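Review this chain:
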Amino acid sequence: MDLSVIIPLLNEEESLPELVAWIDRVTRNRYSTEVILIDDGSTDSSWQVIENLKNEFSIVKGICLQRNYGKSAALNVGFKQTLGRVVITMDADLQDSPDEIPELYEMIDSGQYDLVSGWKKNRKDPISKTLPTKLYNWATRVSTGIKLHDFNCGLKAYRSEVIKSIDVYGEMHRYIPVIAKWAGYKKIGEKKVAHQKRKYGTTKFGLERFVNGFLDLISITFVSRFGRKPMHLFGFLGTILFTFGFAIAFYLAFAKFFWMEYNMTERPLFYFGLLAMILGTQLFVAGFLGELISRNWPDRNKYLISKTTEENWQKLLY
């Protein structure tokens, strides 16, 4: 199969028929295509709409999650079911234009890139969203070294090997380029894409996503550098602190026995040394426990799914 289009959604019953018809017009007689619609626990009639679209369009496949797990979980489930050589993700709210699909497909299919991220240069959003977004993207560029303007754009294209090699969990969908680079896929490109005003419904994200975004940035920076070797960070810091505290204790012991100084426990330096050794030991133990957890956590990406549109798909328990 040439192309897989993954669309996570939450309460988008109004936009889905128009979006699927638009994708069908763009891809018909051009690519062998599948459109995987992932209902992330919608409370409206989105799943009924998906079932109707499945009967109307042969390209449509659907997955319904048991509850709202979040966009990262929905994408991760979709990634595991794709058959296309090129995989494109997009949002369901019609703010991403399917007309971008051919150019994105060509950028991946030509072998020039492993991953192409959309850049909504002219955003149709208020300044309350655009200004924090610019700050967030700047911080991500600086901390990760990936020169993209819009990490949070839902419109992205991938080689199939990329999405089959990575896990997306928590709220890390914003940082898929970082995860892909960490996995060894360094041909990461960018394309300016159209951004349209929301036509139906309301946004599912508030200002708290920017706070969560910066917290996730700290997390992904740590995971990408020390996720498989937490002892290298915590063990190093713990060793430095413990050595510093031990040096203080050695100095105080030397002063007591050779310089005949007394009342060592009344000196603030004694407590600084004691605190440094305690914190150093705790950090070292935290690194050791982190090593055990990172090597033995089997259920990081298991999500319950209630039903699918495909009879030949096994019950998914990701």
The radius of gyration is 25 Å. The longest strand covers residues 3-9.
